[in-house]
Design brief:
With about 300 residues, the protein is of the alpha+beta class. Helix content is about 15%, strand content about 25%. It contains six helices and 18 strands. A hairpin with a 4-residue loop joins strand 1 and strand 2. It starts with 15 loop residues before the first helix and ends with a helix. One of its GO terms (biological process) is demethylation. Keywords: Iron, Metal-binding, Oxidoreductase. This is Fe2OG dioxygenase domain-containing protein.
């Protein structure tokens, strides 16, 4: 099962289509022994619970809150008209099959995370219809000086059983701020503490300064983030992060490096599309670092019209 299947899945990744065709039983254990919490974007804290709609009870939360640093949410990032522009734009372009029941459109360089090799590939910049999104980033202090080098459209549908398994975005090339713009329907990011400290190139994190402080301010101290491996005595709950449609989510610091994030199949109630944005790690922003990095940064400033390119 290591080879790609017609649905786009391979290895341990599955969707409803290949599970039915190949008799695969999909089960990802979710340890909830240490409690379940829902992050409130108004309080910037997490409260006991599971149903993501409970954050709407603000400020009348139940139970004792816990601190959960490294999350920034703008619930009203997009207007209705802006959301329509993006949906029409992504749906005017071809989709590629991806794993776990998703479809994708990827605009960015080619990266080999194991060998730490970077190349331009066929990256020519980004679709013009999405240019305004990157311009809106400058309105948020947590995204000061954010330079997009990858933009990826991801589609989730309940018909395919779409999901994404627990993971941390690679830390060799993708920078500290992980950005998601959510479209069409509400969704949830489920966070579990990472028990694989030697994966994801997490050892790179200590080699460059953090972009942000714990509170989301620009870090001027030059200090690096210290990844906190899971110890046997540690007890961490499951934390659920709301991603309403038209919202902006930024993960950084602890949420970025110490916790794996996933989207559960059961949380995909209807079609959902997100735009995911990545930046370089600081070493690749240093002048003279690598010619290929310079080429990528230059291409990342270009925006093109899809119909004109197709002609």
């Amino acid at each position: 099962m290591d080879k790609p299947r017609p649905c786009g899945c391979k290895g341990c990744r599955t969707c409803l289509i290949c599970e039915k065709d190949y008799g695969i039983q999909k089960q990802i254990p979710l340890d909830m022994e240490n409690g379940m919490y829902i992050y409130c974007p108004f309080c910037n804290k997490a409260y006991p619970g599971w149903n993501i709609e409970d954050y709407n009870s603000h400020p009348n939360h139940s139970g004792d809150a816990i601190e959960y640093p490294g999350i920034y949410i703008d619930l009203n990032f997009l207007s209705d008209d802006e959301e329509k522009v993006l949906i029409n734009g992504v749906d005017s372009m071809p989709w590629d099959l991806s794993q776990s029941g998703r479809r994708k459109q990827n605009f960015g360089p080619k990266c080999n995370f194991k060998k730490k090799k970077l190349r331009l590939g066929d990256f020519q910049g980004f679709p013009r219809f999405s240019e305004f999104v990157q311009k809106k980033f400058s309105d948020h202090r947590v995204l000061k000086n954010f330079q997009t080098i990858e933009q990826c459209s991801l589609e989730y549908t309940p018909e395919r059983g779409a999901s994404i398994d627990p993971h941390i975005d690679d830390c060799w090339i993708w920078g500290e701020r992980i950005v998601t713009v959510n479209l069409i329907s509400d969704s949830v990011l489920t966070m579990t503490y990472n028990d694989k400290p030697k994966r994801y190139n997490l050892d790179c994190v200590s080699k460059y300064p953090s972009v942000l402080t714990e509170t989301g301010d620009i870090n001027n101290s030059g200090h690096s983030y210290t990844v906190k491996p899971l110890m046997n005595s540690d007890k961490h709950p499951v934390v659920r992060i709301p991603m309403p449609k038209k919202s902006l989510l930024v993960m950084f610091g602890a949420a970025r490096y110490d916790w794996e994030h996933q989207i559960l199949r059961d949380d995909v109630k209807e079609r959902r599309v997100c735009l995911a944005y990545r930046e370089f790690t600081p070493p690749y922003l240093v002048e003279g670092k690598e010619d290929v990095a310079k080429q990528i940064l230059l291409k990342a400033q270009e925006f093109w019209d899809y119909k004109r390119v197709e002609m």
